[in-house]
Amino acid sequence: MDKDSAENSRIVYTVDHPDFSVSDSGEISARKRLNADQNRERFFIYRFNVTAEDRGMPRRRSTAMVHIRTENTNDEPPMFVPTREFSTAVAEDAQGGTPVLQIQAIDPDRDQVSYGFLDEFGYETSETELFEIDKDTGLIRLKENVSPMELLNYGSPYNLTVVAKDDGSCCDEENPLLHTSTATVRIGIADVNNNKPEFPECGGYSQKAKIEEGQYRHGEAPVIIQVQATDEDASTNGEIIYSLYYARSESRKPFVIDSVTGELRPSPHFVFDREQKAFEEVTVKATDKGERPLIGFCQFTVQVIDFNDNSPEFERPIYETSISRSIQPGASVLTVLADDRDSAPNARITYRLEVDETSGPDHFDDVSFFTLTSASVGEITLAKSIPQSRKRFAFNVLANDNGKPDPRQSLVQVAVIVHEQAQNAPIWQSASTCKQSIAVEEDIPVYTELFKCRASSANNKRSQISYKMTNGVKLGTNYKQKFREFQIKEAGQDWVVIRNMENLDYEETSNYTLTIAATDVRSQVSTSKQFTVIIKDKNDNIPR
């Protein structure tokens, strides 16, 4: 109030709080709905100043402090934080009782909140078939004796409705007013990387994987085979990267593989040679993309298909023999032998007699005096009687491998000397060091003496005997690199000693057949003897 009169006593009121206003009569009103929930107590006190100012001159004013206490009412439901929709996953190998998700709801009225599930009928419960919830803390757990894989029987993700309920105790403990809120929880299965990649068709790759021998440039390499691995894990745990495994000591790397598709191709510039290695081993590694990657392996062989890239090879650079003028047509003169390191059908050798044009016109018809018993056998026989004027014959033998697409051929010269009397071939002598076959360990030292043999002349005991080793009849092995013959003289006699010039390996070849030709130097009549070297295996390879 103001004791002055007229204009000097007219009072204007103001407040310094944005939530309140004051009328000219001094009545204080709230500008908006007051909320006691902003404080953790059950009430909230607003404090502000009210100023009264008259209209006189000079103007005078006074100020008073106003306290307004607001009492809380249970008018707010619980609120889930941070959202009303939750998604999580439980590991597929989790044990019963494993915590899954912590749910939290707060009540603006500061009431106590409890939690539960709503079943399909809308009734509140503390557990479902698979999960349970702590009514006080809101922690959802997997029930005891429940496997996460049982979620699949109910569909994944598994949907839960969680209800949060206040106790309505803030205002009327005798007749509480309860408020509830619901939230949706979706629970899926989190894959665990517990399955390694597998190659279900690995056992059949060796029958399917083939590559023709030769060299392939980049961009021209064909797909040899496409391997495929499977992984029962999901997501990145089931995604696979392919690579090739080579031992650290392995310098030969014949193949490359596409890390995504599993397509196996020949390495650029690598030369595949069937005669050197008919099968190439491959070890494919499949690695998943798990945090701790698991690995699966598949080992198989790639067959190197033969290409007709080798010509027939005669066991001698030239054949020389002698015959008696008196032998009758049909008699065997000599046998030529050619090998082909290619495989069938590129090594089906046939023989044909041809004129040796390098021997001169006098020998152009020499080939007519001889014939082959069969095109597939190199045995040459006399076709007609030898005239008195002939002292020497010269002709060629052509060997054809009949390969495809283009056959390959080789020529060898045959010289036949005519004697007035029959000439006999050298005779091999028996000796304890000259057995038909011998078995040796694969780790015998290089230069070991394997055979020691001799032959003697049947025509002249003093005639010198020369020896020469051929590669025998077994294809695809270069015996001249592995073995060598040495001619020695003991007590005036000519002997031949066969030694190994390299290490032997059972895994490479288990036996060798060697042929030694003994030739009488004077008569040039030869005879051959075969020897077999059997390699015994030793446990010299570790499992891989």
TrEMBL record:
It is found in: Membrane. GO terms for biological process: homophilic cell adhesion via plasma membrane adhesion molecules. Pfam families: Cadherin. InterPro entries: Cadherin-like_dom (IPR002126), Cadherin-like_sf (IPR015919), Cadherin_CS (IPR020894). GO terms for cellular component: plasma membrane. GO terms for molecular function: calcium ion binding. CDD domains: Cadherin_repeat. PROSITE patterns: CADHERIN_1 (PS00232), CADHERIN_2 (PS50268). The keyword Transcription regulation does not apply. Keywords: Calcium, Membrane, Repeat, Transmembrane, Transmembrane helix. Residues 2-80, 82-199, 224-314, 315-428, 432-543 form the Cadherin domain. It comes from the Eukaryota. This is Cadherin domain-containing protein.
